[in-house]
Specification:
By secondary structure, the chain is α/β, with parallel strands linked by helices. It has twelve helices and 18 strands. A hairpin with a 2-residue loop joins strand 17 and strand 18. The protein binds flavin-adenine dinucleotide (FAD) and ligand 5PR. The site of ligand 5PR has 9 residues, from strand 12 and strand 15.
Amino acid sequence: MTERRRHAEISGGGFAGLTAATALAQMGWSVRLHERSPELRAEGAGIVLWNNSLQVLDKIKAGPDLMSNSMTPPAYETRMNNVIQSQETLDGIRWRTLTRPHLHQTLLVAAREAGVEIISGSEVTGATADGTISFANGETAEADLIIGADGVGSAVRDSLGIPLERQRSRDGITRFLVPRRKAELQALEPDTEWDNVIDFWNLEPRVLRVLYTPANDQELYIALMAPAADAQGSRVPIDLDLWTSVFPQLAPVLADAAKIPGRYYGYQTTRLDHWTEGKVALIGDAAHAMCPALAQGAGCAMQNAWTLAAAATEAASIPEALQEWERLERPLTDLAQDRSQWYADTREMAKGNQFQGETVTTALYNPTDPHRHEVP
Ligand code: FAD
Ligand code: 5PR
């Protein structure tokens, strides 16, 4: 007996949508993915991934490609007014730093190899609980499963009228990819290990922070944080004199950042009343956008993409399976959201020694372990 191949339609070609599409296709589904932009590429600079998403990337066979152009820095260092507070080696925690374009490209290759049909320039306008997706060009399509992975402004979510709460924070950040310039930085500060992640905090006399994250041998990810109320600190392109006066040891890479237009993102959290409705499920920023403190937004997106694909594949009834998936998986993402929001509100990361306890619960999670919800 041959069963009809089940079909999924996905809105959004970001990290969430590409991961879900690849996982479903590898699990035997026919999958169409719609990306509104005419081009398939990642915006933004660098990213940190932890065990939860690295396990998923292994499962969808994107691991080797990812490892080829990423790194695990020797330590996560935290400084306050340039005084080292901690150098956490994160022993026993799997983590990688890389660029967003590299992660996106890796996922795109995996999706294509898995047989996902990717349609760029295709804008989704909404979906219904009974499995109809609609497009800006007036067309509609039917599916056994529809995934809204269309980001923080999700059209799929909004078409379903799912109630949400949005919490904004006082701080925000501008992110850049620049050349490493390790030799120049070493000349300025020879005793510094410039392969570390270095989280340079200044709270007094003024809140300004630079998160320095080597992404590979050539590329450096730097994120510049300032309160939204600080017009000069949050300005783009950045005010080079201001940033260089506070962080003189970073002068060469700040000069590169100042040449890039940049965009200031205010920290915010989006919480939904529910993530699924009938045959529709939401994942990624569409369902659970979070502050970046734990570096878990994309991690949770990929984790939920994988567990959703697995749950739907095993399901006798998709709507019931989706509800059960949310019940089992959502608490981990809620925790990451709450914890990240708390760090954004309190700026407690500045104290150093933060990567322990609940802060790393999501980072250590293995969403591909079939026994993960069993009580030991
Ligand atoms: P998106 O990346 O927003 O992708 C959505 C896609 O859907 C886009 O391609 C968009 O064009 C498309 N789309 C939108 N509307 C439609 C439509 N109507 N029809 C079709 N397509 C549509 N996470 C980490 O894990 N580690 C980090 O280090 C990290 N750092 C961060 C730093 C900052 C400052 C911020 C703001 C976030 C950070 N994140 C990090 C979070 C991470 O970037 C996001 O959580 C992640 O990119 C979300 O992926 P997504 O696929 O859900 O959404
Ligand atoms: N961690 C990472 C990051 O990119 C940001 C933050 C923490 C990896 C911001 O860009 O706290 O803002 C943060």
